[in-house]
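Just wondering, does anyone understand these tokens?
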Amino acid sequence: MKKLLLLIFVFVSFVSNAQDTIRIKKAIFEVLYSQKLEQPLWLTYRSTNRPTLVNRGTMDFYPESGVKTSDGADYYANQWDKGHLAPAATFSDNLDNLKQTFTYLNCMLQQQDLNRGEWRLLEEQERKWDDIEPLTVIVKTIFNPGVKLPTGATIPTQLEKHIYFEKSKKWKCYRFKNEKPTMSWIKYEVSCTSH
């Protein structure tokens, strides 16, 4: 009986851990999402020279059916913005693409000054670079160990952006602490060791 209970416990632990992280491919990005942390672990997208044809207006983030994500309560009355991993401005070429950027799968708890400052400026630079050549971008969230909010989601401690220049075959990588930045985004460039 003890062996049977142990086997059941091991199986249930395996299944619950396996269901914690979900890999989802959307039309404009692919994400590995942790339902336990209620945050993406990584997300990748291609940044190409798309025209800006639609405006985000009053769009807000929406939950995904069947996936336990963060929600509006995690971002209410605190310093955490709903930070896009795949930027809305990069996918403003049509309404379908823009709407996809507003899923909570593409949303991280990001310190507001970072999101509205140096992170945004790096996103703007990406759009200048993608005028010259297409980019593949990987955004990673790091939890060491991260702080869990009373509402359930866990705050990442660091954010990384790895940018691959597809024609010139080179990488640029950036690492930010998830806090108010103290210098220009250019100063957050680090050696690219893993992608």
